[in-house]
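Q: I'm writing up a methods section and want to include an example of the input and output format. Could you take the sequence below and give the corresponding predicted structure tokens, formatted cleanly so I can copy it straight into the document?
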Amino acid sequence: MFRMVNHSRWRFMSKLRLVAHISISIVFTLAILSHYIGYASTKNDLMVLKVNGPIKPSTADYLERMIAKAESNESTGILIELNTPGGMLDATRRIVSSFLDSDVPIITYVSPSGARAGSAGTFLVAASHIAAMAPTTNIGAASPVLSDGSDLNKTLASKATQDTAALMRSIAETRGRNVKALEATVLNAKAYSSEEALEAHIIDYIAEDRDQLLAILDGETVETKSGSRTISTASMNLYEGKRNWKEKFLDAVGDPNITFILLTIGSIALTIEFVSILEGV
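A: Here is the clean output for your methods example:
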């Protein structure tokens, strides 16, 4: 026995598929185009980047791309305004490597007041050429844990802890920071207030806000991979390096709430597709 095809439902499903395909095409086209969109800059420009949230692969993509652009444009430096609870170790290693290899001075500023550079954020601050914090911020507690925040099993915890502690020691030695104090953030999950971090020589400065920080940094000389660089903030132009569409999309997908919504929508779409196939048989 043959069943009659519900043409209205079939047309609806066809339109739905078409809209989905067009939407996906638009997203990826914008991601590709945004990768090539540039900006006018001068050698006295300071790029301002904002990292607010967990450290993810998309965060590493964003920072690596911005560092490459700043180097290409011979910018004065990069100011990263940081507020993070931590994040993924692989992404953190990528960012640390890009900081250490940068020809442009990297300035990390944990702000605003109440912000933190937790866990992975500690590595980013330590690896910067200049590290600063706003008052009433904190840094540390960098012991490795599972992605859900739970503890690793004993054997894996020992290996991961020793591995990340070695990374932290090498960063501290390279940047001339307090090795023991930073190592304690990994081995003992030690955390520091901004004042304690300054006193322990984990960071270089405490600044009330961005303007005060820039005033402090005027005339500061740092050693980059390509040699000494002096920062002049007297007539500096500030511009924000924005995420492209690809990085925004990956940021959103990396959000557990967004991931749940996407999985729910995908499940519903598959169910509709399955039902429409059965009705057409």
